[in-house]
């Protein structure tokens, strides 16, 4: 029986079996869900297909959300990518992540990863990595299982819900999942995956979840773009050989403790932070009366 | 610990897993419990659902679910128009249910063949739901398993009779709960199973005696 309760255990299992964290995660899921390998691979391929469709729609999206607050920014970022300071790869990733998040806001189809509010980060990061490395679909699906394994550990030991842990739990978890998947797609080791997860999460600790009017729009949509790029930096540092001084599981414990001690006003209640700004309150009044 | 496809997934229509995907699943489940196409739906919204439903498209998702759309069906966005085209008469009203879960909806439904039922449930996070009332019975049903719902008289042997039927058809019981109004009066049994519940199983349940009604609700 495959079992893991920490990223360290996931890494050790992958090393012992000379395989990837994704394969260990799939083994675990097969044993716990009584699902077949074929069906699980098919489900993950379906997820990847929907992720790609949401990126395509996202970077050309002109629709506005129900509130009118978001929609139409991804296409601007995408058009700017050749003239940007950060370069074409980074801007394309940002546009993709913002685009997927816009698709979510206009009631389009997305893959929650781990949540709807953070749905743009992992797809954008994986697409960026796969294009650079010319990864096969099989490798991409395996990287998605790796991302899932990382998310499962975080969910078990901290939280993936903004209402419990603030935005660090949603976008922070997505960043860790994305960074780990990118390292694997570049051929990095399981240890490097762990360092990438730690680096990504460490630098988003304490992030508030303070959405204006309680909607998954401001700051969520654009934040997906920022965090996708953040996860790329974490993956690059880990691939360069940079190690996190604090081990990844201790980082996740810190995230849990910070999440518990954050005031409820910044845990998806729309009673603090950006939601309580003058403009935030005006928007809330306009949308909900 | 949850599963891989709760972390990477589900595929859903945005913007919110609790206020949109969960709402669609609640509507879908209420429609399945009614067991026939919905002609009229009065939907009462409590808590956060009542305050924020327009911004999250909760109304579209609830109606989309009642129309049989899954949480990943892009028609949810146009569900209110589709409902009008199909002659589904719907209305929304706020309600104060005290300390009920903040994302609670109550569906007062009439089917096209006149069947009436009231179903109350909550969107409990991550797109997961829990149906908490069917008519005046306090129950708990997640929609993750095929479910057998039996309305019967509260007396000894009924549970054995029903479990005999399931054993005969080689259906494994995952979870089972019984509810009753008062001793010896009307009761409700909810059995969640690992296998699908076919029509012949339901017929066998109905013929066990002291059963007022038996129906299956598929997993959603």
TrEMBL record, chain B:
Pathway: Carbohydrate biosynthesis; gluconeogenesis. The keyword Iron-sulfur applies. GO terms for biological process: gluconeogenesis. One of its GO terms (molecular function) is 4 iron, 4 sulfur cluster binding. Residues 147-219 form the ACT domain. It catalyses: L-serine = pyruvate + NH4(+). Keywords: 4Fe-4S, Gluconeogenesis, Iron, Iron-sulfur, Lyase, Metal-binding. Its cofactor is [4Fe-4S] cluster. It comes from the Bacteria. CDD domains: ACT_LSD. InterPro entries: ACT-like_dom_sf, ACT_dom, ASB_dom_sf, Fe-S_L-Ser, Fe-S_L-Ser_bsu, Ser_deHydtase_bsu. PANTHER family: L-SERINE DEHYDRATASE, L-SERINE DEHYDRATASE, BETA CHAIN-RELATED. Belongs to the iron-sulfur dependent L-serine dehydratase family. This is L-serine deaminase. The lineage of its organism: Bacteria, Bacillati, Bacillota, Negativicutes, Selenomonadales.
